[in-house]
């Protein structure tokens, strides 16, 4: 069987069994496809015949090509997942990834906005036209809940309960409810009651947020929106949709929220993913101390 057979089976596994996110799916498949291209270009056997030596040579080749530590580590994770799957399906006799060890690296702390910078960003949409009302509602919702941009654009109008003040979010077939602060409720109420009915292309459109064509907002579309407001606000930091997610978590922690509650709101499966915000807040306190204490 050629490489495409194993690649397609792995694709089906990631989609149907692991329920991988679009980002994870894209990354894993890209890494496995690149490994297959490497094998072919070096006149080596296919996926099923590749051995430990070939895999170690491939990782060494990635490192010598100037790939970052993070990229190499992700490739190793992709290969380990791929061959674990093949072994579980009895498509290979042994897992050849045992000797692959990611490079040790310090975890890079995420960049966040200060509370003043968040306020400045949220002030940028001008509620003078439908686009302004929509953008205001999107930014307020993103900072109010810390949801991922993929979750934001996937929301349907039925996921909002503004009477109770919560939004329902789905991720990997898991449901969670996240509260909304009053300013977000007001922005969403104005958008859903007065603006969205004018913007949707058809009456049965389920999407909460739509583009100028009246269809579901895309990831790329929202990325452009947040970048435009960063420029307008004259904020020097590189703001992405994930920056507001990080800021949401760090600001909650700074103001006394416990890690378990933040973990639940963010939808992290493991609390270790949430603990990075503790490191971030500690680093900020240390930076403030070093800048402010007269004997620091």
In sequence order, what are the helices and strands, one letter per element?
HHHHHHHEEEHHHHH
- Biggest sheet strand order reads 1-2-3
* Rg on CA atoms, Å: 23 Å
CATH superfamily of the largest domain: Intergrase catalytic core
State the low-pLDDT regions, or none: none
Shape: globular
Structural class by helix and strand composition: mainly alpha
Number of E-type strands: 3
Major sheet:
3 strands, antiparallel
Give a description of the structure.
The chain is mainly α. It has two domains: 86 residues, DNA polymerase, domain 1; 177 residues, Intergrase catalytic core (hpI Integrase, Chain A), CATH 1.10.443. The chain has twelve helices and three strands, in the order αααααααβββααααα. The protein has a three-stranded antiparallel beta sheet, with no helix packed on it. Helix 2 packs across helix 4, helix 6 packs across helix 10 and helix 10 crosses helix 12. The mean pLDDT is 90.
Q: Which descriptors would you attach to this protein?
A:
3-stranded antiparallel sheet, DNA polymerase, domain 1, hpI Integrase, Chain A, mainly alpha, 296 residues, 12 helices, 3 strands, 2 domains
Set down the secondary structure blueprint:
Layout: H1 3-16, H2 22-41, H3 52-64, H4 69-88, H5 115-122, H6 130-145, H7 149-154, E1 160-161, E2 166-171, E3 174-179, H8 182-199, H9 219-233, H10 241-254, H11 259-266, H12 276-292
Antiparallel strand pairs: 1-2, 2-3
Helix pairs in contact: 1-2, 2-4, 6-8, 6-10, 10-12
Structure described in brief:
With about 300 residues, the chain is mainly α. The chain has helices at about 5-15, 20-40, 50-65, 70-90, 115-120, 130-145, 150-155, 180-200, 220-235, 240-255, 260-265, 275-290, and strands spanning about 160, 165-170, 175-180.
């Amino acid at each position: 069987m050629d490489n495409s057979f194993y690649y397609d089976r792995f694709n089906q596994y990631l989609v149907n069994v692991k329920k991988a996110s679009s980002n994870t799916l894209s990354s894993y498949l890209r890494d496995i496809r690149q490994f297959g291209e490497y094998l072919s270009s070096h006149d080596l056997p296919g996926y099923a015949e590749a051995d430990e030596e070939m895999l170690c040579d491939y990782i060494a080749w990635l490192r010598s090509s100037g790939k970052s530590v993070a990229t190499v580590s992700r490739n190793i994770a992709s290969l380990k997942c791929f061959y674990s799957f093949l072994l579980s399906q009895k498509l290979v006799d042994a897992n050849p990834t045992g000797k692959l060890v990611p490079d040790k690296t310090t975890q890079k702390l995420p960049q966040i906005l200060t509370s003043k910078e968040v306020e400045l960003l949220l002030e940028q949409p001008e509620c003078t036209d439908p686009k302004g009302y929509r953008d205001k509602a999107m930014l307020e919702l993103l900072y109010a809940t810390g949801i991922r941009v993929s979750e934001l654009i996937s929301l349907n109008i039925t996921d909002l309960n503004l009477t109770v003040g919560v939004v329902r979010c789905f991720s990997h077939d898991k449901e969670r409810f996240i509260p909304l602060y009053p300013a977000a409720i007001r922005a969403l109420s104005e958008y859903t009651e007065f603006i969205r009915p004018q913007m949707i292309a058809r009456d049965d459109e389920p999407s909460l947020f739509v583009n100028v064509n009246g269809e579901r907002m895309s990831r790329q579309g929202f990325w452009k929106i947040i970048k435009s407001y960063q420029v307008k606000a004259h904020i020097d930091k590189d703001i992405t949709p994930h920056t507001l997610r990080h800021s949401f978590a760090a600001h909650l922690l700074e103001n006394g929220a416990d890690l378990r509650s933040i973990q639940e709101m963010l939808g992290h499966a493991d609390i270790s993913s949430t603990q990075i915000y503790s490191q971030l807040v500690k680093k900020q306190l240390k930076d403030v101390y070093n800048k402010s204490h007269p004997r620091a």
